[in-house]
Specification:
The protein has 9 helices and 11 strands. By secondary structure, the protein is α/β, with parallel strands linked by helices. Strands 3, 4, 5, 6, 9, 10 and 11 form a 7-stranded mixed β-sheet that branches. α1 crosses α2 and α5 crosses α9.
């Protein structure tokens, strides 16, 4: 028999790529993770991971077993949701991870509604970067992620998604900029400017580079910050121009087709029917409409 607890270890290794990172996500020691993996390989009689220095990758047998592990995890989430529904009533704690502007726009108003209409539902909010909430969700650190995407992509099969809202990117210009009073801005006219942007690895940085590339130039990024308020302050100080999501920092529209980010709530597959999680998702969707 395969121990399902060891399947969780295999999934964490597949997600995080190293024993140390998987151990951190699972709140285990690296030696415990290695022991669990060795026991799982003994149970199935096949090698599940390839090791390249500190990093690991799945063998074909490992990939197959992770697909089964995902199905098992979804069924366990579904069982928990069904049992919660049978228990009746709507009470419980929901841990939500969200980026700052979505907290202001959607999460805080939804929390106010829930405090009045469902006082036995406790929502605990954690401020995280938009690209960091899904890993936290898959690791079981939170119950619901408010996250974003900037271009169409295939859904992760481990998630159920609830669309919330879509927002364009705006250009932010320093005071006295030559284009400040001209309405919508053609990005091509900013090819010679210095730029303020998020650091590499932040999805917003990818959007800036892609949008500028489509306009025919590579942005000369001289200042970086993950905080949009800080980006706004740097632009106001004359350090450069920026391209940011509208609800994060209001600027002027992009002429033509502006980049978009699509904001959605995500839960682990199978958890969408949990009465408390469903209520929170429905309230978030109602406040974003």
């Amino acid at each position: 028999m395969i121990d399902p607890r060891r399947l969780r270890v295999l999934r964490a290794l597949a997600d995080h790529g190293t024993v140390t990172a998987a151990a951190r996500a699972l709140h285990l020691t690296p030696s415990a993770v290695s022991q669990q993996l060795a026991a799982l390989e003994s149970e199935v009689g096949q090698e599940l991971l390839r090791r390249r220095g500190r990093r690991v990758s799945l063998t074909s047998a490992g990939e197959l077993l992770v697909r089964h592990a995902n199905a098992v995890a979804a069924e366990l989430e579904r069982a928990q949701a069904t049992l919660a529904g049978l228990a009746g009533g709507t009470a419980g704690l929901v841990e939500v991870g969200s980026f700052a502007s979505a907290i202001t726009l959607v999460v805080a108003p939804a929390l106010a509604v829930l405090r009045a209409s469902a006082p036995d539902v406790v929502v605990r909010v954690r401020d995280v970067e938009g690209d960091a909430s899904v890993p936290l969700l898959l690791d079981g650190e939170i119950d619901l992620a408010i996250t974003e995407e900037y271009r169409p992509r295939r859904d992760d099969g481990r998630l159920t998604r609830f669309p919330l809202y879509t927002e364009p990117f705006d250009v932010v210009l320093p005071p006295g900029h030559r284009l400040a009073d001209g309405g919508a801005v053609d990005l091509r006219r900013l090819s010679e400017d210095d730029w303020v942007a998020t650091p590499p690895g932040n999805p917003v940085r990818d959007v800036v580079e892609l949008a500028c590339g489509e306009a025919g130039f590579a942005p000369r990024i001289t200042q970086t910050s993950n905080d949009f308020s800080a980006i706004g302050a740097l632009v106001a100080a004359g350090a450069g121009v920026a391209l940011v999501p509208r609800h994060a920092l209001r600027g002027v529209p992009v002429r033509g087709t502006a980049p978009l980010r699509r904001v959605f709530a995500a839960v682990r597959k199978g958890a969408e029917d949990h009465p408390v999680i469903r209520l929170v998702c429905e309230t978030l969707a109602a406040r974003s409409g």
